Amino acid sequence: MWGERLIRFGVLKRVSDEADTQYMSAMTGRPPRTDDHGFTLIELMVVVLIIAILMAIAIPTFLGAKARSQDKATQSSLRNAITNAKVIYNHTDLTTYSGATASALGAAEPSMSFLPASTTSTQSKEISVNEQGTFIVLAARSSTQTCFVIADWETSGTFFAKVTGDCSAAAAATALNATVTAPSAPSPTSNSTSSAPNAWVASW
User: Fold this and answer.
1) Which residues are registered as beta bridge partners of 110?
2) pLDDT digits (tens, 9 = 90+) for 39-49
3) Cβ proximity of 115 and 129 under 8 Å
4) What average pLDDT score do residues 2-30 get?
5) 102 near 169, Cβ under 8 Å?
6) Rounded to the nearest 5 degrees, what angle is found at the Cα of 170, between the Cα atoms of 166 and 171?
7) Residues 108, 100 contacting (CB under 8 angstroms)
């Protein structure tokens, strides 16, 4: 008895659902939708458009982050190199940078390649070295093709710069007018956002 009622109820519900579907179809002027319907062309185009917008936003952000990471790697290499140069400076009897040669720095930091002053750096792990007794200039080129320079004077401290053109320590010293006389201390507000290349700044 209960089984017959349940069957009757299921049949009536199915008939009611079909009637509702037909009614909605008549009201909207659209054919009734079935369970196996697919996406319309408009729906697919909207999805593609959304994906394209997201990619247009994400790709430049990713590339910018990648470039900053590459520059940071080069700057880190130069900071490590100048630290080793200072160690050599403090451990020599002459207390000058004349002992901080490319070969001496290479022995102290074998994970990087140290080049003579006139040799151009082509990557972040290649450091061109120009030791001049009372001061030292180091240069390295990032994968972004930016040439970063760091220098230290025994009486005035460490200075930073970015130069254009040849990325050798000798060329950088010439472009930045690095001489025995240390440059004037840059403004504390000077940083890597400065639009002027070939100038000493307080930080990259």
Assistant:
1) none
2) 788 889 999 99
3) yes
4) 53
5) no
6) 30
7) no
CB 171 within 8 A of CB 137: no
**Residue 7: enclosing H or E segment and its boundaries?**
helix 2-28
* Cα distance between residue 162 and residue 147, in whole Å: 6
| Rounded Cα gap, residues 191 and 201, in angstroms | 6
Per-residue pLDDT, 33: 58
Q: Report the pLDDT value the prediction gives residue 190, as an integer from 0 to 100.
A: 45
What 3-state DSSP class applies to 78? helix
Beta-sheet strands, E only, within the chain? 113-115, 126-131, 135-141, 147-153, 157-163
Q: Which pLDDT score is estimated for 101?
A: 93
For the chain, the average pLDDT equals: 81
Six-digit token pair at 101?
């040669």
Under the banding of pLDDT at 50, 70 and 90, the label for residue 162 is very high
**What is the DSSP-derived secondary structure letter of residue 201?**
B
Coil/strand/helix, residue 62: helix
Asked if residue 21 has pLDDT above 70, the reply is: no
Q: How is residue 158 written in tokens?
A: 């460490």
Structure tokens at 189: 């507000």
Sheet strands side by side (includes 147-153): 113-115, 126-131, 135-141, 147-153, 157-163
Per-residue model confidence (pLDDT) at position 198: 80
Which one, of 159, 149, 129, 145, lies nearest residue 70 by Cα?
A: 145
